[in-house]
Amino acid sequence: MPNMKTLGEFIVEKQNDFPHASGDLSSLLGSIKLAAKIVNREINKAGLVDITGAVGSENVQGEEQQKLDLYANDKFKAAMEARDQVCGVASEEEDEAVTFNKELNRNAKYVILMDPLDGSSNIDVNVSVGTIFSIYRRVSPIGTTPTQEDFLQPGNQQVAAGYVIYGSSTMLVYTTGNGIHGFTYDPSLGVFCLSHENMQIPEDGQIYSINEGNYIRFPQGVKKYIKFCQEDVPADNRPYTSRYIGSLVSDFHRNLLKGGIYMYPSTAMYPNGKLRLLYECNPMAFLMEQAGGVASDGKNRILDIIPTELHQRVPFFVGSTNMVKQVESFIEEYP
Ligand code: AHM
Ligand code: MG
């Protein structure tokens, strides 16, 4: 019989890894775990009931919102508000940060930034999607309403981050800065079981993930790197394999396990790339560094970027160390 351990048990065992009060982590992750189970249940039956499809509204970036985006947003927000640890949430689906006004929440120490359902355009075609979350300690005084400064902290201040992947199996992956751990959901038991302790990404990979349809609009250095990936150099295991799901969490997760690079550079349409620094890039960068990999905007470490606005976008290159270094050197050489 394998040594089965649940996410709840693992968190209790690792409580001391959390830099602050020990019960906080288990409560915070407990709320994420609960909302993830509820969202997972709805996603699983998305094809069965009339729940997919656009609502007709647009979010702050002018993108069409899907019903499940809003559903996930509501469930995660409600789960956070129900705990005493969270004073506010900023979400990709909300124009402004949401602050909780109950006294218990105002006394809370943490803010959460999240993309409640990333890659949601994939739901209608039964492709994996994910939830991404990022946790910071507030900088405003306890007992007050949280401010912009609480949400606009650089990624290197994160105390925890993670994602849920609703895939062929559902997994929750998180870090508190002491390695990155993965838990697979057993729907019959309703629990997340430890399945991937201390994941490490290979230093070299052979998978590159990018929306190559935009090739013509990519910066010169990125074009050169794509050609490098495609060159026939068997001694260097090239050409590499191209894999792109169009769902960041899924592409990231595969590359983490197998070795590879995910790229969303600037394009003519998205001069700063498409992905959001606070909801997508920072949490994924924290996780990737904990797995021994690298996350960059093409020149600088993602986690050191000082954010200026909530929905800020940034070019994103994340994955195996040698692959990210290689694309950075092409970008430097061909600005
Ligand atoms: P979303 O948060 O609106 O779902 O957008 C983010 C998603 C990522 O999951 C994915 O990697 C990327 O957008 C795909 O974009 P594109 O279709 O331009 O390749
Ligand atoms: Mg997203």
Could you outline the blueprint of secondary structure elements for this entry?
Layout: H1 7-13, H2 22-44, E1 54-58, E2 64-66, H3 67-81, E3 86-91, E4 98-99, H4 103-106, E5 110-118, E6 129-137, H5 148-151, E7 158-166, E8 170-175, E9 180-186, E10 191-196, E11 207-209, H6 220-230, E12 241-242, H7 248-258, E13 261-264, H8 277-290, E14 294-296, E15 316-319, H9 321-333
Parallel strand pairs: 3-5, 11-12, 11-13
Antiparallel strand pairs: 1-2, 3-4, 5-6, 6-7, 7-8, 8-9, 9-10, 13-15, 14-15
Helix pairs in contact: 2-3, 6-9
Magnesium ion is lined by residues 92, 115, 118, 280.
Features:
magnesium, magnesium ion binding, FBPase_C_dom, 30% helix, five-stranded mixed sheet, fructose 1,6-bisphosphate 1-phosphatase activity, binds magnesium ion, alpha+beta, eight-stranded mixed sheet, metal-binding, 15 strands, Fructose-1,6-Bisphosphatase, Chain A, domain 1, D-Maltodextrin-Binding Protein, domain 2
